[in-house]
Predict the structure.
Amino acid sequence: MASNQATAEAPTATANTKGKKTPSNKTVVRNILDKVKAEGRTSLTAPEGKLVCDVYGIAVPKEVVATSAQDAAKIAAGMGFPVVLKIVSPEILHKTEAGGVIVGVKSAGEVEKGFATIMANAKKYDAKANLLGVQVQQMLLGGQEVIIGAVTDPSFGKLVAFGLGGILVEVLKDITFRLAPATRDDALSMLDGIAAAEILKGVRGADPVNRESLAGMIVNVSTLISDFPEISEMDLNPVFATRDGAIAADVRIVLDF
């Protein structure tokens, strides 16, 4: 998963933050999943995950895959510094563990060095992995870190999850679940259902988050996993929520055909 230092400004993202998907583009998702199945894979790459998020109105940062250090530097310069660099490989799901994530890259020279470092780390982590390149991603600034996800429960089926990110989710397990597909009211109740719900309303001078944007993202994730039951797990972690919107800095989608 991407480093928790990746943060969010306002939605300069590539998708609508108010919870509207584009039904006519569901074939885009079907084609992606069929391709993954044909290739014998069980997870989506970051670029594939971005396309799925775009179709379902799940906001993500600007990002482009580079296949060389020079390309990465050029992309980053056009995007604006700082940026985040992430390995792109179907075989490497946990990018941070593989040494495949560098955040806060501030110059073209640092990007070129970072590209080489990430590729070397990935090869060391899994010599047989197919390395497709390095994702250059807009580094977002500010916001409350949360997580939104989905799991498949053997008894209840598809569930959508919400919780605060960072130490609160890792140690306190402060997460709420609802059956998918979830309604807007379900999603809003999830925001109030965590123990640390007051944080979302703004404490000690912090801005409150945009509840409608978070609820819309929860609804869209729940709709996606209901539309495509072969999606067994989905993890948006971290999502950065501000008073202006919410953006998923990293996306993980696992399939079970």
In short: Strands lie at 63-66, 83-88, 101-105, 133-138, 144-153, 157-164, 175-179, 231-241, 246-248, 251-255. Residues 63-138 form a domain with the Dna Ligase; domain 1 fold (CATH 3.30.1490.20). The first helix runs from residue 26 to 38.
